[in-house]
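Z., the sequence and structure:
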Amino acid sequence: MGETATYLYCIVHSDDAPVTTKAPHGLPGASRPVIASVARSFWLVTAGVPLKSYGPGPLEASLRDARWVTDLAVAHESVVEFFARQAGVTVIPMKLFTLFSSENRAVSETRSRLSDIEAVVSRIAGCEEWGVRITYRPSLPSRAKGQAASSGTAFLTAKKTARDVARRSTGAAAEDAERAYTMLAAMARAARRREGAPLAATSPPLLDAAFLVPTTGRRRFKAAVKKLADSAAGETQVTLTGPWPSYNFIQPESNS
């Protein structure tokens, strides 16, 4: 094994070789992105990376540094998005730290999976990914006017009433989020929920979903999300992010 490995940013489906002029540099310490031909209008965007930084041992140690991983994720994404913006291409983004021993090995393994890759292209071509997050933070109820702090019974009664009101309000907000998901999914080629709480969040949102939206329907989709945000109650926040390369739609949807 040499002193470098081949890093794979993405696979590009395009009649012509993607243009690398003005491409971002990419990962720290890596060579500039280059194009490798696979077959039948499929191309790899790769770079050489030093094993002293990206070999198994150094990489495992570096993964403990959240800031380092974040910086590399941003650098990786900048390269993927550069190629995704080119006309007439479909980009299949790779996961962070997709490495091969050589460019020839990367090309060979991609060729061996070409039928699966063609299926991915059929699924995501002409689309872009958008994220929609709906959060709900009910305001804390104030103590009822004239209620004595020393009155234990009154305090517990008021607390139960506030809890019941909050539960009903949260339930109504959750139902609204479900209706929003159904409505937005109808505008997309595919939609997938993302489970769990996002980083820095204290609790899971009512909805955190990715939508595979045809580029021809982008304006209609964004207008629908804006309408949801404008009509949301004060405690509800609707956030739209994108467009992104289609990370959440590379794998076929599970039937389980």
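Confidence is low (pLDDT under 50) at residues 144-148. The chain has two domains: 4-124, 127-249.

Let me know what you think.
H.
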